[in-house]
Amino acid sequence: MKNTELAQIALSHDHTGAIANPIYLSTAYQHPQLGASTGYDYTRTKNPTRSAFEEAFAKLERGVASFATSSGMSAIQLICNLFKSGDEILVSFDLYGGTFRLFDFYEQQYGIHFKYVDFLNYEEVEQSITEHTKALFIEPISNPQMIEVDVDPFYILAKQFNLLTVIDNTFLTPYLSTPLEDGADIVLHSATKYIGGHNDVLAGVVTVKDQHLAEQLGQLHNMIGATLSPFDSYLLQRGLKTLHLRMDRSEYNAKLLAERCSNLDAIDKVLYSGRTGMLSLRLNKDYKADKFLEHLNICIFAESLGGTETFITFPYTQTHVDMPDTEKDKRGIDEYLLRLSIGIENYEDIENDIIQALEKSKQGVIL
């Protein structure tokens, strides 16, 4: 059913019979009379194209409301505004560098505390909860170490202590996981990634299952104004229609590549959860990452993920560049770690490109 739901997501039901939803560019809407509204007044508050995406996405996530934002980071910022000075949030120790940077800013500027814990260690998490703890923020597959967490016990723990559970589901998407059904309170995505799927839209989305939370976030969404444009909302709708096809293909390619790389002398360790198209590789110290990246022909050295093309990212100077070196060291983010977002190309082309680049990146080899 989910494949059909994605293929037919957000079908238009207007009087024209159009299959694709129209893009409403208007920023203002005429009032029939004083005190009356069509339901649309000003596009920051509500826009028909954005509403079509948000309503379809909330249904896909099994939530009551979704909020489309202007980037993945603005989605996280929207959630941060639920908390006040003195509140504490327990956070996945290994996580996206941009999230770490934003949390550090909120800690310094607004006194919201973020405590990094190992969600593989239930006792550590439980013992870290204090009277100030308000939420758990979890990447179920961490970025960039690809550590997969069994989140279910933490839904129960959160309810026991009256905490919110926030899941960054960017890597898994609603196709592979619907955390709101399992017990999460808030799910967010950098929709720039797998949701859009084509490296041509910057977006985020937050979904909740509680009406009270929906009202709070709806007010903040409108007040802050980091809402998604109509055209970008349309692009997300279009991207969702092929999400299942793209995810299946990238996961298939990633599984084959993880197996192949585990048998290469050039690779010390393959970091892969077995799900999604995301994996990381730790190079043998006889190989240089810069030379490897220079010799790629098909795979692309770029800082993003979830598109149709295979991207390779160097977290040390890209996604985690603003993380202090001491924090990077704790997480194993060094000059030998590469993060791969496997695309939907022919698998053989991806494998051959990576192997030839590795062969040319061995130190001491004269080309």
Automatic annotation (TrEMBL):
EC number: 4.4.1.2
Modified residues (N6-(pyridoxal phosphate)lysine): K193
Any one Gene Ontology BP term: transsulfuration
GO cellular component, one term: cytoplasm
Taxonomy, superkingdom: Bacteria
A molecular function (GO) term: pyridoxal phosphate binding
Keyword Amino-acid biosynthesis annotated: no
Keywords: Pyridoxal phosphate, Transferase
Catalytic activity field: L-methionine + H2O = methanethiol + 2-oxobutanoate + NH4(+); L-homocysteine + H2O = 2-oxobutanoate + hydrogen sulfide + NH4(+) + H(+)
Class of enzymatic activity (EC top level): lyase
Cofactors named for this entry: pyridoxal 5'-phosphate
A Pfam cross-reference name: Cys_Met_Meta_PP
UniProt family annotation: Belongs to the trans-sulfuration enzymes family.
The protein's name: homocysteine desulfhydrase
Organism for this UniProt entry: Staphylococcus edaphicus
Taxonomic lineage of the native organism: Bacteria, Bacillati, Bacillota, Bacilli, Bacillales
